[in-house]
């Protein structure tokens, strides 16, 4: 594995270098953990010497199957659960001593929405706003209104939470993270319970917030979600960090190895012959399609060759190795199966 | 020095042994358990691995060992750090405290369940008043029911009767519902984690929640007093009050003395609320804390009913709740009430400390 362990913006760190991030300087990181470990009563180790480094300004995907320790990690970061050992910093401040100074600048969605069912959405947000030590009550109405508008709940502001749908509840929880100017958002499975439209909106919102300079730390068990939103990724598996780094470097891990070209055509045999003539390897014939490793060949030349040979080309696509392949390689398993 | 794991120390021992053999027994450090022992007595400088140049030497021969050392140091720091969140840092400005208290009080008095409880508390004096009006006093009463018989002569006494009846169970139950729910209820529906992330501060949140429960105690006792005052004045004659000690006081002074009783009973309920909140920090199931409090009240009352256990009585919260007869004497007899207030204060201190110790160190996992 290449890269400089001391630099968080550097290469993907894998389990081969367990102490690498542990010696990393805090640098310009929004979240740094060193050997963070949580052993629950009964001996179950939920998180095992976690060394995370989340660069400031990144959209950081915290990926792992359900039960891999993501939520426990987030609870430790926010001071809800005391680690058995290890230390951590948020926004450059050692925790948990800095809780009261740092958390007002952090918005958090932890393990789904939780509100008072007999209060309206607006009253619920006012309640959480009142709980903080430094929010200005004079601007509360305005900030709450803006947050509700941002998640598309302005029309339902006065409706009781009890009457909210699952998607509305999730939106309200996201609105609660946007009540003030935040330097860091910690979002635990933010698209849970949302329909495809809502999921798209949340992704858009995350990008928008990140564009304003806020670091977003988003946990998910869905690879596609992380792939769509994130600039950096960390992968958890059974309480351990398997890898972390910029998402582009995850892609490069398999680059060159498996970029394939796929040709849709009814004339599969002819197409395969053309590909073979061009010297492509690993040719596979499918149902009305043929694929091969692209190698150094230019896709447009392949297209031209196919057309020149009279092959009916209905579609042509370059397939880069999916992140899923990379992650499956790292974790040894698919993502929705681990317990 | 770091004794987190025997392995790195042993490895360092081996390294030193090979490199610079200071005095014979370092060689022993190379084999397993003795390595740790040798490290402990530091004769060969092996134990100093964590401090100074030996540490650097160790770093050269094994990254894993250093990693473990760093983790170990962190562990010591945080294990202490999490348990002792400095109260001063969590406090914040008084205005923010008031805002959070306002939010708590608003939540308590907007909650349908609590409104119903207050309505029931207001209704019971009405029922007592109607019963006394219809059937007269409970007849043939001994010393204990002296106040009871006075009601039909002066409506003001209905307040004393209602409070001394309701303080036995109905008031404690409603206080237990609100106080027992205060922490456990929020934990149960998950709002506790968002309050703490806001960050409310654990000490601050607990203090504000207790203040809120005391406000509820005051409200509940006041509701009973006002309701019985109104009903008493409507159903029975009103006028100067004949005291237990024989003298009389004006109606106005009678009302002021009811105010004293309200404060005293509120203090008694606030002491119970401290017990209930302590239970509330021990569970995520609000009903458990509420039921636990009610069971404790009943057990205390049962224990207090045995003459053989009279030695216990001064220590039971329930023995003091009814101790407000003193206001019906001239001058106000403060002896028993003073002792009662001391007992209440002791309960608040002890159970408040339990609640604080538990709440500031607990893992919020729901």
Automatic annotation (TrEMBL), chain A:
Domain of life, per lineage: Bacteria
Domain ABC transporter: 31-263
Annotated signal sequence range: none
UniProt key word Chloroplast: no
One Pfam family in the UniProt entry: DrrA1-3_C
Keyword tags: ATP-binding, Nucleotide-binding, Transport
Region of interest (Disordered), ranges: 1-24
Gene Ontology MF, one: ATP binding
Protein family according to the UniProt entry: Belongs to the ABC transporter superfamily.
Protein known as: ABC-2 type transport system ATP-binding protein
Source organism: Streptosporangium subroseum
From TrEMBL, chain B:
UniProt keyword annotation of Transmembrane present: yes
Highest taxon of source: Bacteria
Hydrolase among keywords: no
UniProt keywords, alphabetically: Membrane, Transmembrane, Transmembrane helix
Segments of this protein annotated with the region Disordered: 1-34
PANTHER family in the record: INTEGRAL MEMBRANE PROTEIN-RELATED (PTHR37305), MEMBRANE PROTEIN (PTHR37305:SF1)
Protein name in UniProt: ABC-2 type transport system permease protein
